[in-house]
Amino acid sequence: MSTRSGRTSRASQDTPSGANQPPDDQPRGAGGDGRTGGDGEFRAGFVCFVGRPNAGKSTLMNALVGQKIAITSSRPQTTRHVVRGVLHRPDAQIVLVDTPGLHKPKTLLGKRLNDLVRETWSEVDVIGLCIPADERVGPGDRFIAGEIASLRAALVAVVTKTDLVSPARLAEQLLAVSRLGDFADVVPVSALTGHQLDVLVDVVARHLPPSPQLYPDDMITDEPEQVMIAELIREAALEGVRDELPHSIAVVVEEMFPAEGRPDLMKIYANIYVERPSQKAIVIGAGGARLRDVGTRARAGIEALLGRRVYLDLHVRVAKEWQRDPRQLRKLGF
Asked: What's the predicted TM-score (pTM) here?
């Protein structure tokens, strides 16, 4: 997997019928042979999915790229940094940008994450506002729609999790979402079943500017491997403690190197940080059982990522009130 880095640029709907349908002469799949926009020009650019926490942004991104590059959780505010995934097709290159969910910050970390989101919004070509089909449009959705209304990017509304609702409820949601702003398109999708993901790709590609390719053909993400590994460990650690400490866990990979004489084995040493000693005990569990389970879960994901066996050494450390401490935040990469 390559890990090179790169830079990070609207036709309204009156009814839900046709909200997801491109014109008949448009390519309908990520591998279609048609040229985006019908002008024969190759298009490339950056697309950012936004929305309130737990709107399905990371799951959608993983489904579009076809590989897990962003961790997911049923808890909101799982994503803590910008993740880029590259979608390649003959007529376009779509760089999908996943960001933390915009939320009312309660800590210095929360404020920094919101600043990161807004900075990303100002640099992309298309913004996809994600709103779950199974939740009523609320104040958070209206707030974000207002925040992005004046940006230069083309705006697309994406109604996610359509597999969770009936057709009647989906139609109702599409109408409610279309009234939130001046969207170029309103597209209902299901990342779980793959329903209409090809349509979303076509819609997004049409709004990208003419541009040469931005990333090499073989690049799926520019996320450094060590960051991806740390995120896989954090995802595993969150699995058993979501209700007790959903936002207090951070992970840093301290060392990572091939085992001597064993090119098929990667040794990884990582620290899991929490804010209080009582939280450390929760993560470790009785007799270390929960930490062993975290290691087992994380190792499976890391081995799939690296394509080799992994020796994973985990330790739990206390960094007191790290979400509010500028020095600790810098140490932990925020």
From this structure: 0.64
